[in-house]
Amino acid sequence: MTKRAINLRGLQTRVAFIVLAISLLFAIGTTLTQMYINYQRALTTTTQLVETRSQNSARIISHALWIVDLKLVRRSVKGLAMTPTVCRVDVTGFDGTTVTEVNHTSRHCDANHQALLSVQGNNIGTLNIVLDHSEVKREALSSTVPIAAVPFTETLMISLLILWVLNRLCSRPLKQLVTTLDYYQADRISQSSVPIQLIQRNDEIGKVSRSINSLQSRIKDDLLQKRIIERELRQHQTLLEEQVE
User: Is the pTM value of this prediction over 0.70?
Assistant: First the structure.
């Protein structure tokens, strides 16, 4: 009897690919969401930090401009510029004084934070702090990488568990059923049919197994009936031959 080639491994591969693809998409979506949340938190924290430091420095710089202490102004501006997320600090006095400090480690200056310098109710200049959002993104990304490893690990473990359950519930019984059908021969009346453990299942595989078992029983009954008819015909032929002789 020719053995039928049913590619169960191909089915498992497709199911595994679908499960892994969906799981990875879910993990990527979760990671991107977490990255966005971390970025917003980092941006808010950085902005608050810059606002706090600018308010503290603004009082010192305002007093230094008021007493024309440019050395103190430059030292305060330099201290602000040493913040990693600060790209540049500009102090502009209304008397024409200008002090600028650039953070050479920053490259993308894309956000301004401006504060007014005043002493005793008199506006004497402005403090402009330019933030580097790329540094904020880098910090958010570096803090997200360890967190992203958790959902990816969970996704991998869940996918392997699903594939193991799928193999136990579907692939293994299907392989057993296919093996039974491959070696089934209808002319052997005493041959065992579908395994009883498959027939007793209450799922779709059990329904298919019961249907196959019923089909095999009908085939056996038809074959047995055919043999009985052939035996009767041979007996009748023998009687006719005897009568002719």
Answer: no
Helix (H, G, I), strand (E, B) or coil at 124: strand
Check if the beta carbon of residue 210 is closer than 8 Å to that of residue 199.
yes
Longest dimension (CA), the chain: 148
What token pair was written down for 86?
């600060």
8 Å CB contact between 113 and 129 = yes
Given this model, what pLDDT does residue 186 score?
A: 53
Higher pLDDT, 110 or 1: 110
Residue 203: phi, psi to the nearest 5?
A: -110, -165
At 199, the pLDDT band (50, 70, 90 cuts) reads: confident
Estimate to the nearest angstrom the gap between the alpha carbon of 1 and the chain centroid.
46
> Do 155 and 27 contact (CB within 8 A), yes or no?
yes
DSSP 140-209: HHHHHHHHHHHHHHHHHHHHHHHHHHHIIIIIHHHHHHHHHHHT--TT-TTS--S-HHHHT-SSHHHHHH
